[in-house]
Amino acid sequence: MSRLSSANTLRAKNFGVRLLAAALAATILWAAGATGLLLFHDDLLAGFVARQGAMQAAYEARLLDMQMRLDRGGSERVQAQDAVAARLAGLIERQGELERRQAALAGLTGPIEDGAGPPVTGSLPSRPTIPMPALGLRGADEAPAGRRSDRETGLRLAALDGRLDGLAAAQALSLDRITARTGRDLARLRRTIGRTGLDPTRFEARPEAGLGGPLVPAEAGPFATTLAATERAVSEAQSLRRLAASLPLARPVAVERGIASGFGTRLDPFTRGPALHTGLDLRAEMGEPALATAPGRVVAAEPAGGYGNMVEIDHGHGVVTRFAHLARFAVRPGQWVRAGDLIGHVGSTGRSTGAHLHYETRVDGEPVDPQGFLEAGRQLAAAAP
């Protein structure tokens, strides 16, 4: 028993020793861990803070990159919109210029006013028929560029640009045609006036008084230069046509039967000696209509010695015509007549050997050969469209 009791006591002591040793080991481990924690706390904390700082920096860098991308995209959109707006403004300006050109082309033709009488329609080039397309550049229904894709906007603007190019080409072609035809008309009118023996400058209007100012040259491209030259040619052609319309170029009788006696020196039918014949003796039947050869005002319709019954018409600019040996009058002094109007009837009054029409053309009171005027009138009538 005592031996058993001693063994139990020994085992109890051994257990207590082992327990104490385990507690001591745990205490030592805890103390070592606490000591290590205390020793490495600052390093761990510094590493943690460094990792957090790196993560924050990376996050901010990503945010900055995204912001820069957004700003760059917005700037590109603004630049694209500005480019579209500038291009559209350029197209609008081009359209305005083409509209001004169109108005200038339309102004190259039209009725020619004759200051000495009624309006006369000229045979200058017909009005150009180039329709101005409705491009929609100024319309309120034009949608902003941002409402459609860049590709659609570019295609639309390119189409408008192409249409303006086509219109500009058509206007240039029309101007070339007007220029060519005006040149032909001008040359023909110059030849026509030249056949009368008259100097066209005598009919030019004097420049207005009180004009002046500094010379400011206008910008001129090829189209503007050609247009200005054509406008000058058209203006000259209109002036010559007004002149032609005021000159006695029409026939004094409805039916041409030839000339019985021409202008100039001849043997007088009564004296059989040389004498100056101041006009043309046109073959005509008794009572045949005598017609005014240009617009003008009747200054005389009365018997006039060897002329017999005579009508004199003032056409302005010093040009008058006389119709002699008439059987009777159809006009009175002061009356306005047009080319082709009846002024009397053919007869044989005055110093005449038989029925005919004595027809004269006088410039500044001096007789000139009517043949040049009548030939110019025939050429002008043959060239009329």
How does this structure look, described?
Helix 1 (2-106) runs parallel beside helix 2, helix 2 runs parallel beside helix 3 and helix 2 (150-196) runs antiparallel to helix 4 (370-383). The chain has 4 helices and 12 strands, in the order αααββββββββββββα. The strands form 2 sheets. Strands 1, 4, 5, 6, 7, 8, 9, 10, 11 and 12 form a 10-stranded antiparallel β-sheet that branches. The chain has a two-stranded antiparallel ribbon with strand order 2-3. The relative contact order is 0.09. It is rod-shaped, with a radius of gyration of 54 Å. With 385 residues, it is α+β, with helices and mostly antiparallel strands. Residues 110-130 and 138-147 have low confidence and may be disordered. The N and C termini lie far apart (163 Å).
Which secondary structure elements does this structure contain, and how are they paired or packed?
Blueprint: H1 2-106, H2 150-196, H3 222-246, E1 259-261, E2 264-267, E3 274-277, E4 280-283, E5 289-291, E6 296-303, E7 309-314, E8 319-329, E9 336-337, E10 342-346, E11 356-363, E12 366-368, H4 370-383
Antiparallel strand pairs: 1-4, 2-3, 4-11, 5-10, 6-7, 6-9, 7-8, 8-10, 8-11, 11-12
Helix pairs in contact: 1-2, 2-3, 2-4
List keywords for this structure.
alpha+beta; 385 residues; 50% helix; ten-stranded antiparallel sheet; two-stranded antiparallel ribbon
Through-space gap between termini: 163 Å
Name the overall outline. Answer: rod-shaped
Strand content: 15-25%
Radius of gyration: 54 Å
Helical fraction equals 40-55%
Order of helices and strands: HHHEEEEEEEEEEEEH
- Count the E strands: 12
Helix count, per DSSP?
A: 4
Task: Characterize the main sheet.
Answer: 10 strands, antiparallel
Overall residue-averaged pLDDT value: 78
